[in-house]
Amino acid sequence: MHKTSLFTRFAKLSSVVTGKPITFVLAAFVIIVWAFTGPLFSYSDTWQLVINTGTTIVTFLMVFLIQNTQNRDTGNSDQVG
Predict the structure, then answer these.
(1) What does the alpha-carbon distance between residue 51 and residue 63 come to, in Å, rounded to a whole number?
(2) What would the pLDDT profile of 28-61 be if each residue is shown by its tens digit?
């Protein structure tokens, strides 16, 4: 019996969760809240840094999850180099 790695299980669960419409709505809500708080923080550098850092981290991690999904779809999950 083939044991699925922890990362593979996490990647599969993540792809299911991030592919749902509610996830998009929540992400859009975060952006809207951030935008409306701009005047409260006088559009400071820190205010901008919060969203820039958050989106960069999410994007960085999603690249690996997307690649894992593509590898599983094409059957190349165990190939290196």
Answers:
(1) 18
(2) 999 999 999 999 999 999 999 999 999 999 999 9
Domain ranges of the chain: 11-72
Tabulate helix, strand, coil % of the chain (nearest 5). Answer: 75, 0, 25
Query: Is residue 33 within 8 Å of residue 50, measured between CB atoms?
Result: no
| Host H or E run for residue 9 | helix 6-18
Output 61 or 79, whichever has higher pLDDT: 61
Contact 68, 7 (CB under 8 A): yes
- Closest C-alpha to 15, from 79, 72, 75, 77: 72
